[in-house]
Specification:
This protein has 208 residues and is mainly beta. The protein contains two helices and 15 strands. Strand 7 and strand 8 form a beta hairpin.
Length: 208
Amino acid sequence: MPRERLTTSERNQVPASWSPDGQALAFYELGQDPTGGGSDIWILPLGGNRQPRPIVQTPFFDGGADFSPDAQWLAYVSTVSGRNEVYVQPYPGPGSRQQISTDGGMSPVWRRDGRELFYIVSAQQAGVAPMKVMAVAVTMRPVLRAGVAKRLFEGRYMTNSPARQYDVTADGQRFLMVQEKERSPIAVTQMVVVLNWFEELKRRVPAK
């Protein structure tokens, strides 16, 4: 099947989640702010005129969206509070967002039956070396209700990408992650100091 360009933009765009029926793609567009602000979440419908539309727009970073299994909710990350936190809001709306994480959070992903929402707390947020994987019990009928977040496990895993770097099996019992490899520090056995290197450079590569 040939490749097909879905969107066009001068800014970097990061795909996040397909709707369960495969008819909509959630992605976020990185803003021009070097501190990470101004990133918005967009929806690209795969039918009709295929015109992307923004669904979460704030002056802050908004990204990492994930559709709920019934396509009625969208989990995402925003820095509207001053740091990364996980929120859920109705899809396609209208409706207000509800904060899920309480001590920082990013990269949300739903369990296949919609009864749990997972996310991670990175070392940069928590101030400790391991990355913590959290789980929150969720009910979506008649209204969205979220329980208290609990820590499942922690470790050193790769999280240095705007896109989510892990996945969860349908029953929520196993996680697929990239683990950082422990490396022994390289011992320094010799140090060389070069003096007057600029003069040596001019001698070897004379200016024309």
